[in-house]
Amino acid sequence: MVKTHLRDTLIKIQEEEVLKEYLGDAYDNATPQEKEKFLSYVKDSIEDDVDKMLNEHVQQHIKKSPEKKSHNKLMMFYTTFSVLLTGLSGYGINEKDWYIVIIAYTLLIATQSLPYIINKK
To answer: Checking phi first, is residue 91 left (phi over 0); if not, alpha (psi -120 to 50) or beta?
Structure first.
């Protein structure tokens, strides 16, 4: 409900700004019919612009949220750890040291499955 009220308020503000820009000095003297006639041509465009503004605001809020930042740091850790374990397992295979390979692959499987376990809220 709040988003709808905000959207309606923003649409009204945009309509007034467009009318003032289009009519210029004649804005005060224009009849409501003239204003409505012009708004009927640009109403869809105004609604699209307001929707874009609201969506951009929501996306910016999500992008800057602490949860998103901590999630990005955690995913960076998983990625780095996976690359290191893959290299370690390659080294173990090359040296035919199967204990290193078993430990590396066990840790790699755990690292790859942790994001799915943690994000299963």
So the answer is: alpha
